[in-house]
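We treat protein structure as text, and this decision shapes the records that our systems exchange. This encoding replaces a full spatial description with a residue-level series of whole-number codes. Below, we set out a record of this kind in full and without editing:
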Amino acid sequence: MNQTSLSHVHPYTALTPDVVQDALASVGLWGDGRMTALNSFENRVYQIHLESPHEGHAQVVAKFYRPERWSDAQIGEEHAFAEALAAAEIPAVPPLRLGGKTLHHFNGFSFAVSPRRGGRRPELDQMEVQEWIGRFLARIHNVGAQQPFVVRPALDLANFAQEPRDWLLQHHMVAPEVQSAWRASLEEALALIEAHPCLRPQPPADPDQIQRIRLHGDCHPGNILWTPEGNPGAGPHFVDLDDARMGPAVQDFWMLLSGDRRQQTQQLGALIDGYEELRPFDRRELALIEPLRTLRLIHYSAWLARRWEDPTFPINFPWFGSRDYWQGQVDMLVEQIEEMQNAPLVA
């Protein structure tokens, strides 16, 4: 892998505990010194105990956005979506309004503060849990369909495959020994994805086409917290809308599926059963599951490469960039080409 990107200090090295506490104080919140870094590679996120509760919250979560990833306007759309969900009594976690604002700036960092919400990972092997999450997603999508994002990028072929492909090649990130095989497999995969109009950068203006709506966008089990029944706010809630984008509804389904085809079919059926209690689901979207999985595979490699100067990444992804890594990407692309040519899952 090209190591030239490691030549300068990453901005997050300046985000010391004192800076985090001072940033919080700049918006009128005072930490008592107890602070825990939460699991997040993309941003820096901290759970902070307050000296005095704020609006009943003794602990808050401060999220410091990765510099130069999102514009203020794009973050504003994320926050507005979260607030719209909360206004519809959907258990999302919007940022607190402090001084009338949800987005703040301190020492070159953009940050937001949210109330802390507890919970555990959902038990996705239970069909009733899948149905509950399906109902929850339908409620989110009902709000998401009310208006589009204007400045946040869409989940499409351009943003998740073509631009990442070009960036990786221009920066010589792909191991030379497998670059030809990687490019050939990738282009074959892109041709299959291109056959789905709603994943093109400019989908046709056809009312019969699959609808693109505001989505959570990164709906995997780690982004769902589950509160057991019998407790306030029982059921699921999402804690992160950082990857919210315009896309087809099924994007928020497929990362919740696991196991063999039979198991995935059962899980998908339960999700859709719950979903359709509150919102119709277009069965044509099932053909998008493997194309969307392929887009994420391509995007993930570029995501890792672009963040390699962040010291957290070499420590946690030491295998990235090797010849074996890129050969593995070729093998997975070949598998995805086969999957995209197979009949889609049914529910």
About this structure: The longest strand covers residues 44-54. Residues 4-115 form a domain with the Phosphorylase Kinase; domain 1 fold (CATH 3.30.200.70). The chain has two domains: 4-115, 127-341. Strands lie at 31-37, 44-54, 57-64, 104-106, 109-115, 213-214, 224-227, 235-238, 246-247.
